[in-house]
Design a protein that fits this description.
Blueprint lengths: L5 E4 L1 H4 L9 E5 L4 E5 L3 E6 L7 E3 L10 E6 L3 E7 L6 E6 L3 E8 L15 E20 L2 H4 L5 E3 L3 E5 L4 E5 L22 E8 L3 E8 L7 H19 L15 H13 L31 E2 L3 H10 L3 H15 L10 E2 L10 E2 L13 E2 L10 H14 L7 H17 L18 H20 L6 H18 L1 E2 L4 E2 L27 H13 L22 E2 H13 L3 H12 L11 E2 L6 E2 L5 H29 L1
Antiparallel strand pairs: 1-7, 2-3, 3-4, 4-5, 4-6, 6-10, 7-8, 8-9, 9-10, 10-14, 10-15, 11-12, 12-13, 13-15, 16-17, 18-19, 20-21, 22-23, 23-24
GO molecular function, one term: hydrolase activity, hydrolyzing O-glycosyl compounds
Keywords: Hydrolase
Organism: Natronoarchaeum mannanilyticum
Amino acid sequence: MHPPTSQDFDARSADAAYRPIGEYGVVGNLETVALIGRDGAVDWCCFPHVESPSLFARLLDAERGGHFAVTPSGSFEASQRYLDRTNVLRTRFETASGRATVTDFMPVPAAADGVEGAHRALYRKVDCDDGRVELDVRFAPRFDYARTTPAVERSNHGVVAHGDDESAFLTSSIEFDVDESGDDASPAPGEDGVGAALTLDEGETRWLVLGYDREIADRPAEHRRVFDDVVEYWRDWAHECPDDGACSIGGPNHDLAVRSALALKLLIHDDTGAICAAPTTSLPEDVGGVRNWDYRYNWIRDSAFTVQALAELGHLKEAKAYFELCLSHCSRGPPADIQPVYGLHGNDDLPERTLDHLAGYRNSSPVRVGNAAHEQRQFDIYGELIVGVHETTRYGAEITDRAWEAIRDIVDYVCDEWHRPDVGIWEVRGDPQNFVYSKVMCWAAIDRALRIVDETDYEAPVDRWRDARSEIEETVLDRGYSDELGSFVRSFEADDQLDAAALRIPMVDFLPPDDERVQGTIDAVRDRLATDDGLVDRFEGDDGLPGEEGAFVVCSFWLVNALALAGRDDEARELFESVCEFVSPLGLLSEEIDRETGELLGNYPQAFSQIGLINGALALGDSAAHGASRSGDNDG
């Protein structure tokens, strides 16, 4: 079900088309991310941060969104790949007269020493590899989610576009067609900024460097040094994961897991350690529908999943930074005030609003910024938070006295409030219910806090906590499990509906994986929520929104984990390989997948999905190790 690794384009129509989501590569600087299509166009990028207003948003409006393209002037074939173990993207064009490559990267702060402002820039290196290639360069910035269409004028080293309080400088030796008639009128929406015709012969190179609020001089030798530093940075980071022989993930899954880790690293904010769920907003879960959300924020639910994925691959620095972030959320105030989602800089006010001037991806409106989930009650987050904290202590992190006080307050709050309904992990926009997964994660919050007490000198009202843990367990087993279905259900109210989140029950040790109720849940999910290809829906029933959605990627990997834990190794491996057929040729995943077409849907790339892939591969590695151990025992 892979999309093709190369594609034919007609340059006369490519500018106006919406590319399939899986045809984009991403580059970034640990502050923001740019999406670059196989046609050589930057169709989405926000500066200076990933949650800032966009500079290019053609992804969300083909006519007025703005873009920055380097594209052959006639018909061509195109393909993309990453430079090995880096986040440096190469787009290769083949035309009737020759071949060219556009290399895109953004320097991370650690790799931009000595070049002022370099890390807030997109570097585009254009090489003619063979023959002669004619290219069109088009620079059409649109500040503030395309609400500002700037005039573009010449600068010292190229051209510059000025918004109300920001600027974008494009440095290059290429001569752009700039209107110097003296007419100061800004172009109307839909007009295409400035362009240039570029003809390169074999061996020729040109650089284009887009700097945010700073012009970077046209110095190719300096650009090459920045490129070398960026490549070295990414390869050093990727190699923190040991080679195949010693890595937790070996064999054919190793490279795919490393690519997922590299994608995940792009979503981690360098200063705060926060992880955005995705670098995009409003890519639809239902094309043409209203299920369009802004994912450029940090969901603390991801904590336990993220810590495990990063730590097991050797990235302890990032795992511990996220641990510190989790502790800071624990300590923000009363437990009732802890939100499911925060801004990447810790801001808690994320008002959701619509941008009605944008058409939306393939006319999927509304386009939203902000996310109303920050106001929701989601009880599972307390479990995710404390499971994440406990997970990180396995890798050497320490809980301070102040953090323990906050954890105690959270657990006391959970003991008092766990019986209340909420909107659950899937953030339904209908009436709250008593979701089974929320109850299980309240159990996990208490359970992990009790483990911390056992492993440290900290004191707590352990008798009260144990009583509450037992009460939750008994209630879930009584009201959250259906003998008729042979499975855990979605909620106490919806006891005839399934929820893929129940696959997490053995992963948080609520029940052992070989328990017949866990096995029954696995089988029920496979039967009622999964396709033959292994794609898994989130749940049965209504979520308060019109329209349908695709299969939820992380749920497929949860099924892989559950099967592997249950010792059903062959099923787990077969399912994992089937789901990985939907991964983009660049190793990236969105939030959802269309069951009929295999098309990626929703925001992209999605941290939850990439983490799911890593943890699925880790589960298969653990399963193989246990299998070898069992085999060795039998031989003995």
